[in-house]
Amino acid sequence: MSDAPRLVVGPFNRVEGDLEVQLEIAAGQVASARVNAPLFRGFERMLEGRDPRDALTLTPRICGICSISQSTAAAQALAAVAGAGPTPQGAAMAALIHAVENVSDHLFHFTLFFMPDFTRPCYSGRPWYLHAVERFAAMTGAAGRGAVEARARLMHILGLMAGKWPHTLAIQPGGVTRTPGPRDKLRIETGLRQFRRYLEAELFGGRLEDFVALATPEALAGWGRGDVGLFLEIAADTGLADLGRGTGRYLSFGAYSLAGAHGFAPGLWRAGARAPVDPGAIVEDLSHAWMLGPGAHPYEGITEPDQTMRAEAYSWCKAPRLGGETVEVGALARQVVDGHPLARSLAGGGVLARVAARLLEIARTQILMERWAAEIRPEAAFMAAVELPKDGRGAGLAEAARGALGHWIRIEGGRIAAYQIIAPTTWNFSPRDAAGQPGPLEAALVGAPVGPGDESPVSVQHIVRSFDPCMVCTVH
Amino acid sequence: MNILWLQASGCGGCTMSALCAEDPDFLDTLAGAGLAFLWHPALSLASGAEVLALLKSIECGETALDILAIEGAVARGPRGTGRFQMLSGTGRAMLDWVQALAPMAAHVVAVGSCAAYGGVTSAGGNPSDAVGLACEGAHPGGVLSASFRARAGLPVINIAGCPTHPGWVTETLMLLAAGRLGAEDLDPLGRPLFYAQHLVHHGCPKNEYYEYKASAVVLSDLGCMMEHLGCVGTQAVGDCNIRPWNGEGSCTRGGYPCIACTAPEFEEPRHPFTETPKVAGIPVGLPADMPKAWFMALASLSKAATPERIAKNATASRIEVLPTIRKPKDRR
Known about the structure:
The structure holds two protein chains of two kinds. Chain A is α+β, with helices and mostly antiparallel strands. Chain A is about 40% helix and about 15% strand. Chain A has helices at about 45, 55-60, 65-80, 90-115, 130-135, 140-155, 155-160, 180-205, 210, 215-220, 225-240, 330-340, 340-345, 350-375, 425-430, 440-445, 460-465, 470-475, and strands spanning about 5-10, 20-25, 30-35, 170, 175, 250, 255-260, 260-265, 265-270, 275, 280-285, 290, 305, 320, 390-400, 405-410, 415-420. In chain A, strands 1-2-3 form a three-stranded antiparallel β-sheet. In chain A, strands 6-9-10 form a three-stranded antiparallel β-sheet, covered by helices on one side. Chain A has a three-stranded antiparallel β-sheet with strand order 15-16-17. The radius of gyration of chain A is 21 Å and the shape is globular. By secondary structure, chain B is α/β, with parallel strands linked by helices. Chain B has two domains: about 1-190, 3-Layer(aba) Sandwich (Rossmann fold); about 200-320, Cytochrome-c3 Hydrogenase, Chain A, domain 2 (Irregular), CATH 4.10.480. In chain B, about 25% of the residues lie in helices and about 15% in strands. Chain B has ten helices and 13 strands. In chain B, the strands form five sheets. In chain B, strands 2-1-3-7-11 form a five-stranded parallel β-sheet. A two-stranded antiparallel sheet of chain B has the order 4-8. Chain B has a two-stranded antiparallel ribbon with strand order 5-6. In chain B, a hairpin with a 4-residue loop joins strand 5 (about 85) and strand 6. At the A-B interface, helix 1, helix 2, helix 4, helix 6 and helix 7 of A face helix 1, helix 2, helix 3 and strand 5 of B.
């Protein structure tokens, strides 16, 4: 690194897990950034030699916030090995269970992780400051308290259908372990109605359908209601649209795999157009990770930590690349790829685009959940028999709240021979690759303003949290 | 009392579960009992330099610490350095911080099975050489010695569970705040008795199937999961079926087996989690408090006496045979 003034930002909280950001500062802004995931656990290695079904118990425990996403990817990977899958109603119930986790994560991110930064004293002169403190002060703000309560109630759907949250075994390759009856369907619908009331009264301050109908940044800026309106006022005042802009390359594996379709479509958004994803073009580069071995596709990849923690590397996070390029993943990626007009109009954007896409996705997911709940047929089969072969391989490609999540498994002699995972934040917070190409967050941080003597620049806090990182998934 | 909560080598799920507390919610429950966070990684505003200053102030005794809550196991690797988890921005390993801060705390609480015993973070070959605060699996002694006592005199309190039930966490902290948790209120593995004196089996809705050994064969069957599907609810401590999770849930209510996540070394059952190991067709892990011969005699008797309703429903995904309705006795 150069002689430019350096800053090490950490402990970096209100993200899930451990994160450290090293910044080089020049002319009052970030000149370059290095993102370090300072924790290694080695889940991929723990799985080797075990019965393949054990992945359903162990991989959810990679992450206490994306637990069901990990279940989903593991179940789909095993189903792919078997060449079989869930019944249509089993798939729909698994999607509903997964969606409850995803909207809960988005809600917590907005109210508990992202917005409290606007209550920092550095903003005390802004016209919206007192309102922000009232709504979003850490641990005492009314919006945060309301979100904690609303999420706990929404999760009764998980108590009912998934036993508990986090860390359920309810999602299996063949469907779900509990068959709902007519009463369960009504409880689910009632819980969703209650959650909609909360969303419309507090978060959005208006009908979800009206928010989903917004199609342009101008229409969005004019929303003016609820906590979403407060965020948009702050975003306009603090220039969040241009802060931490992305490359405009987005990947989605497709969320909520249903019989023949997805809730949100898969695809790669590149140069302003959508193309199919080629998972075969993924390579995990290890040049700047404390990992040994060559860069490889996850079917060939290994996870061998470099115990010497060599000096030219700086993170336990590998650097996945698609066709040699970085891609951004998450709600913005999903909504751009799926083709929502507002998201498309925000493509390539920064903090505002990422947060607005997450809010848009809360509204759209609630509507999806209500539809799936209405379509529950208690007389249907919710589980199919899935026999795992002694040998084979398969991939489970799903979408966690934070973006594309992939599990790649190889089974030999009835045991797990290899298991590789690429989590959403592995994409977003990856270190540099052999070509020196920085990861998406590292690139987005360049240009962020840093005041003289500022040890924890608030611009950096906003940009980092706009990605909603999940570091524990990253460093599985 | 104040609480410093640190997330060591784990998934963060015990915090996420704690935030499912209801009536009142997690924050209200703690505040009402006079508990406040000095810092919590998921909830506090303070970041970076502000946090570092707080940690140093506790370490040097300037800020008195009442409760140190650690979530997650502590990585000792590579090669004993602890550098598999550096507390970001501090240049020091979490191992080092835990060992420095624990003696400063009036109470040390291990939140979750990882912090208590190593848990899932130490599964398989334990790639990060992770261990619990005061236990390595079931063996005394972790990153703190087996003889460690916090300033107020208690050993590390192990709120084991993967994840922990929100009530286990809030009630342990509230009992500490009220001065009503003593060494006699912990079981031999350091778990608070208020939940560790129960078995997951207590209140399990599959109890009638268990009584007749009417067993589920595949996940989604209604029957008892002990014989074929790896359920160890008759041996695992926890009040999961007495006060359910997330409204009305529990593992067995959700249709999947209890894997004894409150126990040390549950992560290595030495058989697939969802398959019961058997010798000559007989499950290996029988209820712990019962002579094996008695259990076998009772089991064969009850199997032979199983009513058709229970036998049929055990292998169905929804009730197929209804309970018999007896006519009321003639009142005259």
